Amino acid sequence: MAEVKLKDVTKRYGRLVAVNNVSFSCKDGEFFSILGPSGAGKTTTLELIAGIKKLDSGEVYIGDRLVNDLPPQERDIAMAFEKYSLYPHFSAYENIAFPLRAPIRKEKLSAKDERERVSEIASLLGIEELLDRKPQHLSGGQRQRVSLARAMVRRPKIYLLDEPIAHLDAKLKVSARTTLKRLADKLGITIIYVTHDYKEALALSDRILILREGMIEQIGTPEEVYLYPSSDFVARLIGDPPISLIDGEVIKKEGEVFFKVEDEFSIQIAEALVGLWESVAWEEDGRRRIRVGIRPMYVNVSKEKLSGNSFQLPVYAVEHKADSSTVSFELKDTFLIARTKQRVNWHMSEEVWIDFDQEHLHFFKKTVDVSKR
Amino acid sequence: MSRVDAKGIWKIYEGGIEAVKDVTFHCENGEFVAILGPSGCGKSSTLRMIAGLEEITKGELLFDGKLVNHLSPRERNIALAFETYALYAPLTIYENIAFPLKARALKKSEVDRKVKQIAEMLDLTDVLRRKPAHLSGGQQQRVSLARALVRDPNVSLLDEPLSHMDQRVRVILRARIRRIHDELEDTTIYVTHDQEEAISLADRIIVMNVGIIQQTGTVDDLWSHPVNKFVAGFLGEPAMNFLEGKIDKPKEVSVAGGKGRTTFQLSGEVDKRYVGSPVTLGIRPQTILVFSQKREDKLIPSLVEVIEPLGESKILTVKLDDTELKIATSIEVEAEVGKTIWLEFRPENIHVFDKETENSLIKNLEEKD
Prior knowledge:
The complex is a heterodimer.
Chain A: E1 4-13, E2 16-26, E3 31-35, H1 42-50, E4 57-62, E5 65-66, E6 77-81, H2 92-101, H3 111-124, H4 140-152, E7 158-162, H5 170-187, E8 190-195, H6 198-204, E9 207-212, E10 215-220, H7 222-227, H8 232-237, E11 244-253, E12 256-261, E13 265-269, H9 274-278, E14 282-284, E15 287-294, E16 299-302, E17 311-320, E18 325-330, E19 335-339, E20 351-356, E21 362-364
Parallel strand pairs in A: 3-8, 3-9, 6-7, 7-8
Antiparallel strand pairs in A: 1-2, 1-4, 4-5, 9-10, 11-12, 11-15, 12-13, 14-15, 15-21, 16-20, 17-18, 17-20, 18-19
Chain B: E1 4-13, E2 17-27, E3 32-36, H1 43-51, E4 58-63, E5 66-67, H2 73-76, E6 78-82, H3 93-98, H4 108-121, H5 137-149, E7 155-159, H6 167-184, E8 187-192, H7 195-201, E9 204-209, E10 212-217, H8 219-224, H9 229-234, E11 241-249, E12 252-256, E13 261-265, E14 278-283, E15 289-291, E16 300-309, E17 313-320, E18 323-330, E19 340-344, E20 350-353
Parallel strand pairs in B: 3-8, 3-9, 6-7, 7-8
Antiparallel strand pairs in B: 1-2, 1-4, 4-5, 9-10, 11-12, 11-14, 12-13, 14-20, 15-19, 16-17, 16-19, 17-18
């Protein structure tokens, strides 16, 4: 177990800066996720820590040791990838035991000790019954767990996991996620975990680093990145259905502040929130504009008028969950999305009243394109 | 727009493999029906038989009451969109979408109107002059969808049309598909393995497994009254929890847990002959109520093992004796790993299944023999 620290790390591929001046430190025993869309530099960051790729500038520390010049096998790390490559002619047991038998290892384990180590990790991952089977007789989910067991059997200082459960189907993913969280809690190990799936990041992590085009956008606990996203990019990355991001004009009238979106609607913004939006507002064609973010569960919708501050829009489409509905409204360049608490059976083009929970409004600078395309 | 009736349809492949067994269902005129099931359940074979791409081994398929078993796909006037979209590479997007209209004697202006209308609905207006190679995967899939829907078909058949798209695009396209259906009012049959997609889009859902229809119904029917353990476990994420239980009285079931056994009341009755028998009890993670203190005797203690926050909700994994349960609850509910929380199962949320047949055992009071 150990701390991992990156200081001003940069990696270029030709003219592309894949990782751009990234600094963070992951504490001993921490579950630390790197979240971002594809191409954000997540895997490259992991490969730099592992030593598989060479960095162009900056420093990587594992524990107190600068490891820039150490080859991967001397960094005492384990890696598991999305694509598990198991040896097809070996049993699950032999696949898992393989790293223990590698000649590079200094300690040699007795057959008995080896068996104990393999059974321990296999039982944590719920695959003890499968140890005698060959990979072709295992399901996709079982293979993934064998691959994870192989990565974890060595007890290295650091585990680097790159989308290890990404391609499992939805049901298996939910159970694999729980298994992984339990395992991390039990072993108290340091894990750096790469994913593009915000649910995995929120569910598993102590802290999450959000990468955007090679740069750090935010680092925080799951609660912080969900409740206090530092930008529209972070807000948009986390949550399903996604947060609505709506651009509009701020108008001050007789001491009151209004947020006006084209000819679609206009609402009054609570006095207390003025400080929040003033810092992010921008000028456009002589008007002050802001981007408002609101999560679907805080958009209240009803057939009846909700408050003096509510407005009407025609329904674009209604989708259902078992116990709620998602109602979308078409604005000029984007959609406004509401999540109801019960299922509703509204038809398209039906006019409904909308009201925002003001305390859940976010204000952002405009940094991502949210147009319908 | 057509009504579709499938009556006792079978698909038996060479070697006697029975892919679809005695399937009977109907789609009302203008209805949106999803066929949902795991891979290999026979849902795609069923769709291909409706399309006419696959011969019906046995049974009758009717469109508006007329037998269509022997009609070619073209004669059936159906729209098809599949998971794998094959666009004509040398043609522009406009020409690709207009292609199915060629065979008809339509005026040029009429073709133009239809193509532009569907392109607008699927947000393809800006790319009509491009070639497929210059479009993203998601855009290509939308073109394929547009091409399927451009001629007012009797029936639209969609086979996992969104399966290769990333989650974000999928959510937006789902709304579009539903919107187009509402606008065209076409009869739509939608095949998917994704329960969330089926729930979000369909008026009614047909759940299939091993070639057999397990249950047909609205989301409410399937969610609240699954006929067997398969349907109960297939819909919902996290999936329904199953526990070992025993019927004590026709309206009472008990499980090991807490100190000794905990008894639950049921919302309906179980046949008397099950009294004393072991059964499987089912409860959805979304319906378990959680308390941080023991407020009433009926609450069951359980040990919190894992907490997974997901924004506004969180998933708890708890141990009730040796059984692991999942609970989906609001982020505000307090829980700590290693601590005890108290659970309540409401009678209307408890399902009981036969251990062998896996059929639901609770008779609804309104149901008759």
